[in-house]
Specification:
Strand content: 25-35%
Low-confidence stretches: 1-26
Order of helices and strands: EEEHEHEHHHHEEEEEHEEEEEEEEH
CATH topology of the largest domain: Beta-lactamase
Oligomer: single chain
Number of strands: 18
CATH class of the largest domain: Alpha Beta
Largest sheet: 7 strands, mixed
Number of helices: 8
Length: 384
């Protein structure tokens, strides 16, 4: 384990780049969206964020989680895409055309398959489809929402609290834009067989064809998901993803004033995600970064190594401001076991949230014998 000390040593390991610390300036990239995040899909690294950790009303972007709950049950075998669910009066009344909300136009007391309902949720943003799925899986929408919240906690989305399956306004129904990005990443990675649904351009039900509301589809090369959202309380929001070559980016924004602003800003942020930001590889996995002094050990020092490859996402224009430091106690007492957490690699840059990478002992360091420790103590006393 990392042994903390009142006297903590923080020094520059290597002057990879010159410049001042991240706290003194920003990346220079701005957006009028009150809440925004740009994430690299492969690494999960945040390339840009603006108030992204604050829980906010997600509106219909909630339906990404609603769909995941259904994907999970299809995969487990508890339901199939051919399973039929009934359209209750509650679903018809609260989610149907007369409610004034987004709807799949399901008829009262009719039935629909899970496969069709999923398209109603993802493509048409149908509130009625969400409620039918929630009732069919959990018995009630309230019980389904509780399951959504529990699942969110289990997968690490700590900001998420769901009170319904649709994103209908509720004071406690919230999730951060950062966690929405992580949810999108999970959908793309873990439910790849279902993800193509998000790229379908239209869906027809009950004689009515509705187009996918994602403003990036067909307008941004490589865009293939995910979901829009809007209520008076939340403003206009978007969770989007696009792939170009080997790179995939995820963009989330919320709180904009109009559909047009959402479209324009969504396109601008996604373009910037590829053009203005990059993931830099600093060290490979198990790289030796430095060494730590060992007190009363048979070796005076032990190498410090990374566990995984060290990468950082930065705006292309601020790379020169990056600093890499080792932060650790002045020395560590033997014995030390291979894999002990002895130090941290701290990465800062303009506009970058401080990145902390654990560093571990590369090998064992045994304690000196009693005689050796006595001699060492005597030497230290003589040296003062």
């Amino acid at each position: 384990m990392f042994r903390n000390s009142i006297f903590c040593l923080s020094f520059i390991l290597i002057a990879l780049f010159s410049g001042i610390t991240a706290r003194a300036q920003s990346s220079g990239f701005e957006t009028p969206a009150p809440y925004a995040v740009i994430m690299d899909y492969e690494t999960g690294m945040v390339l840009f964020e603006k108030d992204a950790r604050k829980p906010i009303a997600p509106a219909s972007m909630t339906k990404i989680m609603t769909a995941e709950m259904v994907f999970d049950r299809i995969r487990s075998g508890s339901i199939t895409t051919d399973t039929m669910f009934n359209v209750s009066e509650e679903a018809w009344r609260r989610g149907g055309a007369k409610s004034g909300s987004s709807t799949m136009f399901l008829d009262l007391n009719s039935t629909a398959s899970v496969g069709d309902l999923l398209r109603g949720v993802i493509i048409q943003s149908g509130n009625d489809a969400c409620i039918v799925l929630a009732e069919g899986i959990a018995g009630s929408e309230t019980a389904f929402a509780d399951m959504m919240t529990k699942h969110a906690r289990e997968i690490g989305l700590e900001s998420a609290t769901f009170r319904n399956s649709t994103g209908w306004p509720h004071p406690d129904h919230k999730i951060s834009t950062y966690d929405l990005a992580r949810l999108a990443q999970r959908t793309i990675r873990d439910y790849s067989e279902f993800y193509p649904l998000y790229a379908e351009r239209s869906f027809k039900w009950n004689g009515i064809t509705q187009g996918n509301r994602n403003p990036l589809l067909g307008k941004f090369q490589g865009a293939d998901g995910l979901k829009t959202g809007h209520t008076e309380a939340s403003g206009y929001g978007l969770v989007a993803s696009a792939k170009r070559g080997e790179d995939r980016r995820i963009v989330v924004l919320n709180g904009l004033d109009s559909k047009m602003q959402r479209q324009n800003e969504g396109l601008r942020l996604m373009q910037a995600a590829f053009d203005s930001f990059r993931v830099y590889s600093l060290y490979p996995a198990e790289a030796t970064i430095g060494s730590a002094k060992v007190y009363m050990g048979k070796q005076a020092e032990v190498d410090l190594v990374t566990k995984d490859a060290v990468k950082v996402g930065l705006g292309r224009g601020v790379r020169s401001g990056m600093k890499v430091q080792i932060r650790m106690a002045t020395e560590h007492a033997a014995p030390i076991a291979k894999g002990d957490h002895l130090a941290d690699l701290v990465i800062t840059a303009p506009g970058l949230k401080e990145q902390i990478v654990p560093l571990y002992a590369a090998g064992d360091v045994k304690r000196k014998s009693a005689f050796g420790r006595a001699i060492g103590a005597l030497v230290n006393m003589i040296r003062g």
